[in-house]
Amino acid sequence: MGSLLREARLAVRSLARESGYTATVLLTLALCVAANTAVFAIVNSVLLRPLPVPNADRIVLTSNRYPNAGVMVQNESATGDYFERLKGVPALEHQALLRQTFRPVEVGDRPDRMAAMEVTPSIFQVIGVNPALGRPFTPEEGEPGNDRKAILSDSLWRQAFGGDPQVIGKNLRVDGQQRQVVGVMPRGFTFIDPDVRFWIPLALGPEDRERFHSNNTINIGTLRPGAAIGQAQAQVNAVNHAVLDRTPELREALVNAGFHSKVEPLAKMLVRDVEGSLYLLWYGAVAVLLIGALNIANLTLARWGNRSKEVAARLALGATRGQLARQFLVETGLLSAAGGIAGVGLGVAVLKALELFGLDRFPRASEVRVDVTVIAVTLALTTGVSVLLGLLPIAESLKVSLSSVLYSQGRGATVSAGARRVRQALVAGQIGLAFALLAGAGLLLESFRNLLHVDPGFSPNGVVTVSASPAGASYPDQAALRAWMRKSLAAASSVRGVAAAGATSNIPFGGQTNDSVILAEHYVMRPGESVVAPTQVIVTPGYFEAMKIGLVRGRYFTERDDETMPGAVIVDEKVAAKFWPNADPVGKRMYRPSSPKDMTPGPDTQWLNVVGVVRAVRIRNLEDVGMGAYYFPYAQQPRQAVTFAVRGANNGGSIGAGVRSALLGVDRALPLFDMQTMSRRGELSLASRRTALLVAMGFGLLALFLAGIGVYGVLAYLVAGRRREIGIRMALGSTAGGVAAMVLREGLILVAAGLAIGLTGAVLLRKAVESEIYGVRLFDPLVMLSAMLLLAAIAVAACIAPARRAAMVDPARVLGDS
Question: Considering the entire predicted model, what is its pTM?
Fold first, then answer.
């Protein structure tokens, strides 16, 4: 122990003497470890860590897909599928259905809209968690008429009942009706959605057993011990075939739609939209670490060159090579430990900063933290770097020949060709990685810019939105909902500064979509053609005007489109082009199939008259308009959950308070939530992309900085080691400009070699990058050229000082010293 402490003191003194080397290594390590700490904390929490339930690794999702119908990748199944899978998929030990919803809950003076989850009683067997107080739902409570029960989250229990341990049996008023509390979940419990405040039974009746392809529930299950996902997938496929055999009239339509079911880990569903981006960022963080390691390796080799005479002298005085090796390891261990600790602290700060730029929009964002796993990985990374730093001088010390070192030091020898090639290769690798990171950041930036310039089909400026969900008990029928909507729109329109007001079931970028099949009269499908499922949207008069969704043909909805008039529908340009590519849709008729079994119109078909065509709107996100959309008037198909869109004559943000007051004036108990401008909704829809872009740009800039240091360091080292050679060249007639050009040329060769490595790496990562960019080619010439020029400019700047130093060599002095 005493010798170790002595070596530690010697190491501290040695590092203090070479403050430039020590500061550079510490800064490089801290920055690289911080990048990896922050990104791995996100990747570990979002992608790698199991869901916070006991059976997480065995829970799978089974969902239905219809890719040819234009239905986006979804997570839902139909209730009929659930009952069939209960019988036909023995690989799943338990199965459950759930449906995420929002309900008004009366806590305090007025209702508050809260996230809830409707679940079959079997959910508790699937997840392996029971209430901390009370009991789970019984099978009987999953039947219609027996479902007026609720299980509370710990937070709602404390908010609504003050944490009363006698809460079991008390009532909670939900959606205007009393529900008996039968349980309270453990503190901190979350499953799928951390915002869920309570759970209620999903009541399924006999008719639900025969409801297929009406996908509005999530079907999850627990794999039996020893069973694999592939086994469950095969059994689900067999169930689907059996159902198709019983309903041959569905076969053609479903085959054409590409119908199939997918069994996958539930955790994968939650992160599907961000998985590619996060893994890409993780690759970037590792690349930054590699650049840093290469940079430190170069610095260490340069330091060794300066200390070789010291090492030879210590060997001559009796020190063993083992003692020297231990000394090197202690030095590098101290450096790595200090850099690692600083990096972890800086990584935590980076995570906090990312919360301001959209990290909270990632799935499972509430679970992101720097935990034991993250710290362990960070320690492993720093230990690896420490070993690398220590092995380099150890390996070099084994080659030391006392006579040759002392002789060469006295003669002012040049750098060996082998040492020069090693350092050049390290710098070329740095440049290659830096180029790959810069090009990737450039592609993400260009992609983000393209998305910002996408025309969403409406004008967001000046529009304020607020969602509402009136209690069902207060509005028991469609007539009551119509009356409430008429009064609410009149009140909102009367607010000073309001230019137009309307409401919709699916506000753009609101996360709510409803894809549903619709067909046109006389449209003849080609052999093998699939039905299409555009987005179904319900709107009030004034909505299109408030959103400034352009009218292409016909008219908007008016107050005349009420329940007394024939069914009306407005289609967007994409739906119009699908069914009437060479005709005017206005005046034509459409219909929705009464069931998947009956796709042709019959005596009971409810016809819809096309009264207008509007521009296509990007409802889900800015990347894809999907199969288009069709719109129904609210009066003909009322809904409880709606979002009001109100356009201000000048600044939309100033009318928000007035609109809120006006809506509450119609119904003081109305739960209002999610009040935002449409511009803000657009920004939030890009939040995860913005976060990824900021991180990628940070990596690119850090890589650029480290590559510049690497180029400077290797050239400065080569100039210092070749002073005698340069002196001879100048004595033989070479000019200062020629010597400077020689150094610059070596630097540019390094850059060219690095760019070649970077382009090769970009080709290898093609598939990982392509899915994350929009509106830009992987090898976009402008992006690639910009990355090359930026990297070349930094490299040239790094070459200038060593080139000037080489040009200033005095041959008489150098040769005289030798």
Answer: 0.81
